[in-house]
Structure formats: C-alpha cells, structure tokens
Amino acid sequence: MLPIGHPGLAERYFIIVFEEAGRSDLAEQEAPPGPKLSGKEAEKIARRDNRMAQLKKELSSTKEYLQSIIEEQESANEELRSANEEIQSTNEELQSTNEELETAKEELQSTNEELNTVNEELENRNIELIRLNDDLNNLLTSFRIPILILDRGLRIRRFTSMSEKVMNLLPTDIGRPMADIKPNFTSTNLDYLAKEAVDSMSAKEEDVRDQDGRWYTMRILPYRTSDDKIDGVVILFIDIDGLKHCLSEAEESRDYSQAIVAAVGRPMLVLDHDMRVMSASASFYALFDVKPKEIAGNFFHRLLKGKMAVPRLRDQLEELILKGEPFSDISLDGDFERVGYKKLKVGGRPVNFGKENTRMFLVEFEPAAGNNR
C-alpha cells in the first residue's frame, strides 16, 4: 500500500499493490543458479513478469492521472480564488452602490422636504393672491368708479361694472384691443392718449362728456409693476357733472354780479363765503387806482397791502357771512399807496345773484366827512 498525497488535496489517497508470494527478483539474481526449470515453471514465471510489468504500467498511468487531477484541482482552486476575489470586489462595489443609494435617498428626502416647503409657500401665496383679488374686486366695486385697465399692447385686461355704460363694454370684451371699442363720449382720442401715457410714463387728464351730457374727468395713469416697469395703463372716469354745473352756475352768478356792480356808480366789492373778491365796480378801481387783476380772487383783508385789515370791519364781515346780518358806517381811514389819505365809511349786506339765488356779499365804500387832510 502506497500513500498518495498533495498539498492541494483535502484528503489522502492510497494505492494497494498485490504481488505473488515468492522470492523477489533481487533474491533470484543474488541466488546461485539452481536447477534448470521445467517448461511449465518458466511459463509461469513469464506470466508473472508480464503481470508485474502491466501493474507497473498501470501504476505509472494512475500516477499521471492523479497528477492531472491534482493540476486540474489546483487550476480550479485558482479559478475559485479568482472568482472569490471578483465576488469580494463585486460585494465592495455593491456596498459602495448601496452607500450611494442611501445618500441619494437622503438627498431625495431632503429635496422632497424642500418641495413640500415650496408647495406650502405656493399654497400660501395662492391664498394671498385670492384674498388680494377679492379685496381688489370689493374695493373697485365699493368705489363705484368706472375703471379700465389695459395691458402694454392696449388690450382690455380688466374693468369695473361702472365702466360698462361709460365705455360701451361687455364682459366678453376682455382681451380686445382698445382701438376696437367705441366709447360713449362725444369726442376724444382715447387710444392716442393711452399710448402717449405709456410712452411718456406720465399721467394724462382730460374732461370728457358722454352722449347723455354728463361730464367726467378722464385720468390715464401708467400701470406700474412691483419692479417699477410700465405694463399698461389705468383709466379712471371721475364724475364731475355736479361740479361742472356748480362752476357754470358760479360763472353765471359772477357774470350777473359783475354786470350789476358795473352798473352801480358807487365803489363796491362782491365777496364769496371765503371773503374772496369776485368782482368790483369801476368806481372802486378809480377810488383806489387799482386794476382788476390786482384784487380778483384775493382775500378782503389782504387788499391794498393789508389796509382793509381793520379788526372791527373784519368782525362785521364775519357776522355778515355767518348770520347774514348787514352792517354800515364802519370807519376805514389811512394812507393808501397810490391815492394818499382816505377816510371812508364801509357797509355790507347779503345779496342773491343768478338763477340759483347764489348768496354773495356786497361791500360798499362811501367817502366820509374830512376825507382829505
């Protein structure tokens, strides 16, 4: 029995060889020649020798086979070691990939949190915009003022319900160019004024009258964004019909009072409720040597460089205006710039002028005794 072993093999192997009992070849060679063998014995010995040669050949073949197995085992072990190294390398790569995935997961979680924060901010902004829009709509509605908003291309962006009648607008006109709209005015070039407001970046204002005869002040303002850019115009229509009528009546009353005062031969002034001079008679201008432009619109107590600012006279005028109580024989004397010393008596009374009986106040001047020094 022969042991067979190799460092690469986990187990040990043995070869068992069987030999025919008898003397060994060495003994036969060393032994002295014996008697001559018979034919059968020689044949037997020859068969034994052949058998021995065959066994040796098989043993050599087995050794070669085992050697090839060992080499294949070593090669397989090398491949296994290489595969193990590759597996370890792959495992390290997988671990690295896993770490990268964990990092990416954390980044995605962080991005998701940021997106949630942005989404909340957008929701809050949306709520604020809705509230601002509601506030704007309620504000525009409560003002009851015709308001029209145009974009930079002068297309209709928004308008209030009050502007539908003034501008002949319909809800479907949103987005239409302003040039396609025919406003309810007697004559005005609204499109030109709007372009001029955008180009000049300044407000434009004009009094217009609708086809029903009602007066409005049309004010065109540049539409400014939060970053101070011009993005259109805002057009407001302010009802001034009552003011126009009042001014017309005031002009009529003034003209009427001037005509009456001019026909009177005495020095006389016409004052309004604020003690402003509305008109004066020709004799007043001659008495003090002044011109109409020097006194028209001035306060009474500032006339003639303050010479009219006599306390008692001013008190009487205030009583006249507040209570309508007339007064007379208030002394006024002094040196006047162009005419020298004058001594006068002043009286006042309320009068109604014009078709609407507008209340005004007449102040009369009469030379007193000892007028000249």
- SSE topology string: EEHHEEHHEEEHEEHHHHEEE
Tally the helices. Answer: 9
Average the pLDDT over all residues and give the rounded result: 82
Distance between the termini: 175 Å
What low-confidence regions span 5 or more consecutive residues with pLDDT below 50?
Answer: none
Structural class, from secondary structure content? Answer: alpha+beta
Q: Indicate the percent of residues in helices.
A: 40-55%
Number of DSSP E strands: 12
What's the assembly state of these chains? single chain
For the sheet with most strands, the description reads: 5 strands, antiparallel
Which helices and strands occur, and which strands form pairs?
Layout lengths: L1 E3 L8 E3 L9 H6 L8 H105 L3 E4 L5 E4 L3 H5 L22 H11 L3 E6 L5 E10 L5 E10 L1 H23 L4 E4 L5 E4 L1 H7 L3 H4 L7 H4 L4 H13 L3 E10 L3 E14 L4 E10 L6
Antiparallel strand pairs: 1-2, 3-4, 3-7, 5-6, 6-7, 8-9, 8-12, 10-11, 11-12
